[in-house]
Amino acid sequence: MSRGQWKRRLEIDDSQRWRRLAQTVFLVLNLWIGIQFLFFVWHHEGRWAPWIATRPPGVEGWLPIAGLMNTRYLVETGTIPLIHPAAMVLIVTFLILSFLFRKSFCGWLCPVGTVSEWLWKLGRDTFRRNFAAPKWLDIPLRGLKYLLLAAFLYAVLSMSVRDLAGFLESPYGLIADVKMLNFFRYLTPGAAIFLGVLVIASIFVPNAWCRYLCPYGALMGLAALLSPAKIRREKTACIDCAKCARVCPSHLPVDKLVQIRSAECIGCMECVAVCPAEGALALTFAGPRRVLTGRRVAVGVAVIFLAAYAGARLSGHWDSPIPGDVYRTLIPAASGLDHPR
Ligand code: SF4
Ligand code: SF4
Predict the structure, then answer these.
(1) Using one digit for the tens of pLDDT, what is the confidence trace for 45-80?
(2) Is the CB of 281 under 6 A from ligand 2?
(3) pLDDT, position 12
(4) Ligand 2 near 252 CB (within 6 A)
């Protein structure tokens, strides 16, 4: 595309610039949180660390099961749990964002989604195409993430509220974040092979992890099913070029439908950005007249995320009040701590 064409495209739709900005900010934020948390753990293991970091509560964004447990605890008792409250704040915030802006957590924020996107775009640029599993295989494979989600929901819903609190306050629950970090620090051969296969698959199949296996994304997709935001095609303006369907990473038939309601739509707006016909395709909110531009989605996502963070922090429901000596005892012993029965 020439410079002039590119400039005109940006004037028509700048959603991808906004989306890339949101993805980059969130990826950097997660890397920063990860580095701080690693140094915090090293320090408590008695290792050298460049500085003595405090534990960043944002790391609980990687504890979705604790988030679900705490959400259930809050719903049933009316009390915000003490341990890992940020996990609950984050999962509820991401559900709200996915409801308002069509699974926008996956398309705009999730660092795993961002890296997956880099991989399949690398594959597309290298091999000039991506691949899709045949329908007979794609549909059952997509069901896997819902099966995983059902298993997690069953585990959370089948426990009594007392057991939930007992789990989170057990030694394992207190340092569930450290156990998660250790999973990635000390990958078993099986896990390393699985991750390697997944990375290679992601180069060829767009968002392979998100599409087939991510239970977090499955949950966000269920929230998005109820969303008033939808990709909407105006038949009279559409010139049937099918460009929208070709760029859709979720393989949705955007060029054939009037509205996209699918739980697979990640609200990425790639289809809108590529559409050459003025007024043919837009992300709309509660009706065809309210158009959500990329800037509006980005501002909405940022405002809601920051409001949730500030609200939790100011009300004292962000940090887990776990004393330093508990961490000093539990972190060096983390490998010996088993999941409570
Ligand atoms: S339909 Fe459009 S917004 Fe939804 S996933 Fe496909 S390209 Fe992205
Ligand atoms: S890219 Fe736009 S004009 Fe082309 S088929 Fe899709 S909606 Fe119609």
Answers:
(1) 999 999 888 999 999 999 999 999 999 999 999 999
(2) yes
(3) 62
(4) no
Among protein residues, the one with the nearest Cα to ligand 2's atom 4 is 241
Q: Which residues line ligand 1 (CB under 6 A)?
A: 231, 248-250, 252, 254, 260, 265-271
For 232-242, what is the mean pLDDT?
96
- d(CA 83, CA 87) in angstroms, rounded, equals 9
Residue of 236, 238, 246, 271 to mutate, ligand 2, most atoms within 8 A of C-beta: 238
Ligand 2 close to Cβ of residue 168 (< 6 A): no
Please check the confidence at residue 3 and state whether its pLDDT lies above 80: no
Atom of ligand 2 nearest to the CA of 271: 1
